[in-house]
Amino acid sequence: MTHAKPNVSTFRTLDDADVANKRVLVRVDLNVPVEDGRVTDDTRIRAVLSTIGEIADKGGKVILLAHFGRPKGVDPKLSLEPIAGEVASRLGRPVAFCPETIGEKAEAAVAALKPGEVLLLENTRFDPREEKNDPAFVAALAELGDLYVNDAFATAHRAHASTEGIAHHLPAYAGRCMQEEIEALAKALEAPERPVMAVVGGAKVSSKLELLGNLVKKVDLLVIGGGMANTFLAADGTDVGKSLCEHDLGATARSIVEKAKAAGCEIVLPVDAVVAKEFKAHADNRVVPVDGVDSDEMILDAGPTSVANVVEKLKGVKTVVWNGPFGAFELSPFDMATVEVAKAAAELTDAGRVLSVAGGGDTVAALNHAGVAERFTYVSTAGGAFLEWLEGKALPGVEALRR
Ligand code: ADP
Ligand code: MG
Question: pTM for this one?
Answer without folding.
Answer: 0.86
